[in-house]
Specification:
Rossmann fold; binds adenosine-5'-triphosphate; alpha/beta; binds magnesium ion; Helicase, Ruva Protein, domain 3
């Protein structure tokens, strides 16, 4: 059950436990969480494991509703109700009768419609545009938002009464940075999945790459992680993915550091050799001028002389 949702961290498992209890009921659910945390996957799982599984499951993205036709999209309209209403149209709510309606990005629902949705949630009565009669519709509503509805309430953009009506059971998806112990699990899951999907040999991460990915804040959450896995699976099939293969946004996130200037390869390096090499290059570039070479290397002339002596470099 709920196996589409990968994660074993304590806060994620607590959420799944609540979700399983809620799935079995008809109660209205409000799913919150940052972008890419899995709100839609959770809504799917709730429906699939509810007594309404197999009944209509209609999804409506409130952010994609053109203002003028939003009401008729939700409740439907009668032929002739307005210019352009050439035939009766069934709204999403009546279409979901007996099943579930997923109202995604509920924060974007126009204020005028918020009042009408609230009335429906309280009475179960649906009135298509241009229709004098109401009809009873039995729909379980799952709503999702990726922005804080309290902020919207305080600016007058979201009705407080609708919020409380939707928020009967809140399910909050934690951002990935708050369940870091799941990062490796998700990486492995998606690397395996994309190797299969694209029929390529599965790539793996080196320890240092895993450590870097584990400390990255993942602003795009699981979606970002999933997309990175797909890209790396395709570009580096069968390879061990090292730190140097990670994208710049991940590398720029080393604790307290900016993007590194050089990368330590997973196989390691001989630091003495690298130092010798850099000193020789600086001396060559400055035609043996030690002061200029020291400046290029960001060290004092004395330190340069000491290191040249140490490595047996002469000009
Ligand atoms: N726990 C998870 N296990 C497996 N896959 C997940 C999980 N969470 C999210 N995903 C995957 O991440 C992607 C984004 O998930 P989803 O669309 O549900 O995010 P969302 O919270 O609805 O984001 P948005 O607010 O941007 O709409 C999807 O490809 C989904 O399959
Ligand atoms: Mg979504």
């Amino acid at each position: 059950m709920f196996h589409a949702l990968i994660g074993h961290s304590p806060n994620f498992e607590a959420l799944l436990r609540s979700a399983k209890v809620v799935a079995a009921t008809d109660v209205t659910v409000l799913i919150t969480g940052e972008t890419g945390t899995g709100k839609e996957v959770l809504a799917d799982a709730l429906q699939k494991h509810s007594p309404r599984a197999g009944k209509p499951f209609i999804k409506l993205n409130c952010a994609a509703l053109p203002e003028g036709i939003a009401e008729s999209e939700l409740f439907g309209h009668r032929k002739g109700a307005f210019t352009g209403a050439v035939s009766n149209q069934l709204g999403k709510l009546p279409a979901a009768n007996g099943g579930t309606l997923f109202l995604d990005e509920i924060n974007s629902l126009p204020l005028s419609l918020q009042a009408k949705l609230l009335r429906f949630l309280e009475t179960g009565e649906c009135q298509p545009v241009g229709e004098t009669q109401t009809q009873s519709v039995h729909v379980r509503v799952i709503a999702a938002t990726n922005c804080n509805l309290f902020d919207k309430i305080s600016t007058g953009d979201f009705r407080r009464d609708l919020f409380y009506r939707l928020n009967v059971v809140p399910l909050e998806l934690p951002p990935l940075r708050e369940r870091r112990s799941d990062i490796e699990l998700l990486l492995q899951h998606f690397m395996k999945q994309f190797a299969q999907v694209h029929r390529l040999e599965q790539a793996a991460f080196s320890k240092t790459a895993l450590a870097r990915l584990g400390s990255y804040p993942w602003p795009g959450n699981v979606r970002e992680l999933r997309n990175l896995c797909e890209r790396l699976s395709i570009l580096l099939p069968g390879r061990i993915i090292g730190v140097e293969n990670l994208p710049s946004e991940v590398l720029g996130s080393a604790p307290g550091a900016q993007k590194p200037v050089v990368f330590l390869p997973d196989v390691g390096i001989a630091l003495d050799k690298v130092e010798t090499e850099l000193i020789c290059q600086a001396l060559q570039r400055t035609h043996g001028n030690r002061s200029k070479s020291a400046r290029l290397l960001g060290i004092s002339r004395d330190t340069l002389l000491y290191r040249m002596h140490k490595h047996g470099i002469s000009t």
